[in-house]
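hiii so my PI (J.) wants the whole complex modelled not just the main chain, which honestly fair. so below is everything: two entries, each one labled with what it is. i double checked the lines twice but i was tired so who knows lol
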Amino acid sequence: MRQQEHAEKALIQWVKNPDGLISVTSSGNWSNTRLTVVNKQLQQFCKENHNISINWDVSAVTHVDSAGIMLFINSYDLLKSKQCKITITGARDDHKKMYHLLRKYTIKDTATAPPISSHFLRPLNSIGQKTVAFALDISAFLAFVGENFINLLYSIQHPRSIRFAAIIKNTEEAGVRAIPIVALTSFLIGVVIAYQGAVQLEKFGANIFIVDMIGVSITRELAPLITAIVVAGRTGSSYTAQLGVMKLTEEIDAMRTMGFEPHRFLILPRIVALMISLPLLIFFADMIAIAAGMLISHLHLHLSYSEFIQRLQTAVDVKHVWIGIIKGPFFAWLIATVGCFRGLQVSMSTESIGRYTTISVVNAIFLVIACDALFSVILTELGI
Amino acid sequence: MNNPVIEVSNIVTCFGNNVVHDGISLSVHEGEIYGLLGGSGSGKSTLLKQMIMLLRPQSGEISVLQQQLSNIKSIDAAILRRRWGVLFQSGALYTSLTVAENIAIKLKEYTDLPSKLIQDIVRMKINMVGLPETAASLYPAELSGGMVKRAALARALIMDPELLFLDEPTSGLDPIGAEAFDNLIIELREILGLTVVMVTHDLDSICNIVDRFAVLGDKKVIAEGSLGEVKNTDHPIIRQFFGGVRGRIREQHGK
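here's the output for the full assembly
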């Protein structure tokens, strides 16, 4: 019974005969879980001996598996390469058979390119690889944007090919359905700004300036940025996942073979829908955040609602609101384009959907913030 | 050579109100290649899953390698799981690991062999199942269907199991690949003394490599035995199976 054999260990012993011949005896169970000691002994043995004759008796081996044979083959080859003469005695037929089978399939160590191992070179190598990957990524993105633009031109020339139904459906998904979460976040942002401002302004008795602070910061910067980040997390990721799954299930390939260009049928409607929704969401966020600020001013600074609104009209130029809203389409384009681009990069494995969704959200948020910074610089330079 | 390795007796399985098995009994002997046949929904894959302890039957007893599965202790179950290899229909390779890592994983977890030796064993197994050496560093997503099957077989064989379960090993392979796969399994059985249990639809596999098989249908085992014995059983399902166009063509070719 194999069960009982499992109880014993693999063993190896050797004695040096007076005539220089070494007799090696191996015994016991040479299967994968029992080889630890033997492996060390054999390594030791191979290191110590070269250019000698060895008589290896394997008759007492009760059971052997591929790991055992492999260990034997490795040691045998190593000793052979050191000019040892080896005779094997007492091998059982089934063990011999197995040896020949494994020998047939054993691969000789071939000289493969050694991996870069120097501690000095490895970081350089990885920097180089990352740089190339980054450059390829950028060029793929530019190609995607170019293809998208060509399809946009085609759609403008052939207005009947525009997928209005898809645009409306996506606007509902990305805009209308996002209202609750945008309302909640912008309300909280309004509360936070009002609280922080109120504490500071109260020290100077400049309570009324809370309105200027809330009005300008919310409409010009915070509402667009926060809304875009929420939308990037919500809609950008869902674009990547949707297109990624369609890519995996070969739906996109099927569409191409039927002549439905995915850019026109899937991607443009999503980009256009988000470019419509985001400015509207930003305007909505403006209102909610200012209302939250108004509420906190009333509770904390005892500023009445009518005072607040009156001050708001004089303190905040309409241009601030417009600047905030104008940013919307730009942010939306970035989020939707990156989301769709990453979605189409998904390939082969389900795991890559998760990976690209994460990349898409991280990219989109980064680009939105970078774009916002660019707006700030340009608009300030222009004196607006 | 004739002690039963797997004994299934009076298995009853239901999913809700749907009875899949109603009193199934069969036995697999040591060293044979045993086929499980049946139409879609006849419960062959379910039976296989019960044998490898993924599902439990409602009643009845399965014993694998002299262990009764219904009241097996968790430590015995752990030992039993190391003594068999399973090839899933879709390969079920871990997508986050390379082919070599997939194949090596059991050796890495269960033994303390040096990683160099594990690498050698893995490369040998890769070569044995007929994968190119370059496949070792690929991820499962980069493999073709046939290569996935081969990699999964190498993974199932890594611990030199006594028992090998194959769930439709040749489905999705081209005829040449399927034949090579069949031959590989025969060769491995010869040399490693494997006992193989396979679920299959493939008439070629049944004729060429399976020693004995059971046909499931009507919630029961309709017939069990070698090809000749089963063909002589008079049952509509068996007549359909071997009397269909594919079966008759095979007959004319004298096999």
